[in-house]
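Can't paste images in this forum, so I'm doing it all in text. The chain is below; anyone willing to post the predicted structure tokens underneath?
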Amino acid sequence: MTRTADAVIIGAGVIGAAIAFELAKKGWKTLTIDRNAQAGHGSTSGSCAIIRTYYSTLDGTAFAWEGYHYWRDWADYLELGQGDLARFRECGALVMKTESNDFMARHMENADILAVPYEEWSPDQIQSRLPGTNMAQFYPAKAGSDPAFGQPTGGDLRGAVFWPKAGYVTDPALAAQNLADAARAKGAEFLYGATVTEILKQGGKTTGVRLADGAEIHAPVVINVAGPASSRINELAGVTGEMTISTRALRQEVVHVPSPAGLDFERDGMVLSDSDIAVYCRPEHGNNILIGSEDPPCDPHVWVADDTDYDREFSEQWRVQALRYAQRLPSLGIPSRMKGVVDLYDVTEDWIPIYDMTSLGGYYMACGTSGNQFKNAPVAGKMMAALVEYGAAGHDHDTAPLSFRLPYLGRDIDVGFYSRKRSINQESSFSVLG
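Text version of the structure:
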């Protein structure tokens, strides 16, 4: 079987579906291929789907601030009416001022430049909003086996920064499905249960893809948005040798625990980032708390070679993350039954994604996006669509990078910031915080 399209998109996660939507709006005939049974059923479904407006870099902050507006106006953006849509719960985000996040000063400087609202909270304000919060310092985070684990290291936290234009999407997989539905309404097509095994090439350009069943999809443009499988797809394309920034899959565990008695975290809680104890968390349906790791150096980092074959069972890391948050909220109970998510991140060396074209004509990538780019999916879709058209017009993005205007902010950004050939960005937090 042979089919044709203007562009093949590999991956129907939230970013892949957004790219399909944005290209379809421009009149491109797209075919999105995903090995799962539905959009958003890969690593997107395991996302904590946090929407926040603070990053270590100015470009990253501008991208996130732009992205916030699409979630705020989700129904209008999709043009689908008021069907079964993912919901953005705007509960705000609180970032603790800690010994380890000196970059918070940069967060606030970036916010001042871009007019992103924030408030500085005192310890009393934090404890008033979240009763029972322990303000003691525990930095640096310690391994669960360390005898000093859970012991305060002296002094209290200085306070926090509250970002009101933040929150989380209640169903990340549904958000991807919303985007896929919006793309289909514009003429895009999707093929599920299919695996790409070859990037077809001729004369230094891509001509499409071959699938595991032998079928070929012919297209002058192929876009790799394969999440944790992105490095394998780049190897198939033969472009890894030109990349100074690479991607690989990192195993992650997210903890799911009930709120302590007397605290309605679903109603009164918010997104929390606490580098002192190296965790972040957010409210979850049923008055539960999701707890993720900020990947401190003391923890094992499990890099996965095959994103289809890895350990999906919880490890002791689950209990360590729960106990870390219990340092901040001592009334938190640690259930005997482990619940949560075990999934993979697709990350680069500096945790800043790659949005780029390559020397293989017509081959593009939106990779290294896990952990902190869910929030940026709609604007990433717009930017990638603009980049594809820029390349199709014959421009060399490596020598003359695309300047992309953020529609809500009315601000231009240099898309070369996300180049596969960039140097490691030393302004990054080198963590899921971006």
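The mean pLDDT is 95. The two ends are 42 Å apart (CA to CA).
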